[in-house]
Amino acid sequence: MTISAVTSNSSPAVDDLTPTADVSSTSAATTATTTKTARGHHHHHGSAKVSEMGQMMSKLQSLATGNPDEFKTLTSSIADKLTVAAQQASGDEATRLSDLAKKFQAASDSGTTDALQPSRPAPHQPYADAGVAPPQPSAQAKQTFEDIFALVKNA
Length: 155
Fold this sequence. Notes:
The chain is mainly alpha-helical. The chain is 55% helix and 6% strand.
């Protein structure tokens, strides 16, 4: 198992919305990874999703410095997709998607990944402490993220 694509550019705000593997449908051969951040918090993610997120953030950083026009177009498109997903979602998920859309729009407006970086330390993980799984993204949100990962990968 390789987690080399995980970078410090990964944003907790983005990670919080990234769909993780559905434990009920994964095989015993699929293993979740535990990463320890510089702040000492443990994050549990499906290994493929961590890799996709790391690759996406790395590609966005490369585009921001190497092809700013494409970066602005791509991050604006991501913001649009997240805005549509937020309008179709409800409750906390709608709020998180809308907030993330604003961050991608700010990245597009500025031409940098600064808005995608963590703005504050990651909060303590109440779900892990309570022994329950965090809420899972809806099927619509999962599809939105799959579309976003594909969009960035093909950029």
